[in-house]
Write a structure and sequence with these properties.
single chain, 449 residues, alpha+beta, Outer membrane efflux proteins (OEP), 4-stranded antiparallel beta sheet, 9 helices
Length: 449
Amino acid sequence: MLKLTMQRSNLVLVLTLVLASVFQFSNTQAQDTLSLFDAISIGLERSFSIRIARNNLEISKNNSTAGNAGMLPRADLNANQSSSFYNRDIDYADGTSSSSALYPTHALTAGVQLSWTVFDGFAMFARKERLVMLFQQGDLYLKMEVEDAIANIAQTYYALTQSEKLQKWYEEQQELSAKRMNIASEKSRIGAGSELLAMQARVDFRADSALALKQKLTVANLKAELNRLMGRAPESSLVANAGFKIPKPWNYVEVMSKLSNENLEMQNANVQIRIAELEEREQKAQRMPQVNLFGAYNFSRTSTPQGQTTLFNTLGPAAGIGASITLFNGFNVNRRIRNASLTADNRRLQAEDLALRLQTIAYRLTNELSLALELLQVEQKSVELAVRNSEIAWERYRLGAISDLELREDQNRLLNARYRLITAQANAQLAEIELMKLMGNLSGILSDK
């Protein structure tokens, strides 16, 4: 029998802590600034998928009983009363006859019946264990919904903070282009510059304005998505305030050791295997006899006021034992057993496929995180150099030492460097969150960023 403990993982501890803080952050919606912890707190409280999974878990718990497995006896109480009024005609053997109109007969029966299946080929025990496994599967589904909610909120939250930072850089680029446009226009007006350069400056300013506007839309859409994940109206105002912390590099071997023990998908796959094996046991039990005990205590009263016997009463207990076995039912038992065996085999194959798929994902994510961390070092230095170069270029442009085209190239270099840095940060954070989810340790993303 597969032993699955019902102890909560770090993820569920996170859920407990987060839900415990709900009252502290119940008024967060009215605030603009929203931390990642606040976002996750609100999201876990209001998530429809989590609430549905929690209700499904309660249903599984209610179903996981000995009575639902067929292990307990059944008792029934019944009572019936009937009256009949028939026209009666009787011809006797001696040649006489009698007749009566509306001949009355009154009957009253009552009783308590008890039935109990004491042996069904051990199917009831397999059924009971299967119900327990379904309850544990519901618990895993709830944990997976919590994992998905935390991961989705964190990914969207960080994407929003990075998009807001990129929007700020686009707006800075737009301001510099506006200054350049004003300088070029003034030079053209006083004859110190050409109209062509002024026109090029206006074109570049409008291009930068378009980028800023598009990025503003991206930020607005990400806010709407984050609000949706938190169960709030899409237009609810918020400001994400997370910084960026360089993620910890993960070793593939270390990830695999945690994945095999903590990954919820693998745990669920093992539960599904056990459920399929128990269903096979239930089908095999149909080949064995079924033994039932039964008992009753009955009362019966029949009265015929116009008959030769006017009253007939019975009162007392009854008990017995019965056994039955199916000898032949068109080979349906064999068919069901074979199908259940194939289903169990499919569950094992699916678990092996899942294990290989998760290993591949873990291998890819560790490589992506490693590359992203290396790129971070490169791009951070690139941005520092590009900022310094842009400052120098702007001063030289104001002094007339470089052309408009050279200034524009320096501006684009800075913007591209910043964009590459944002992309590297996003890739690193995404890989880190996915790796933590694989290892069942999403609590790490709640540390200060």
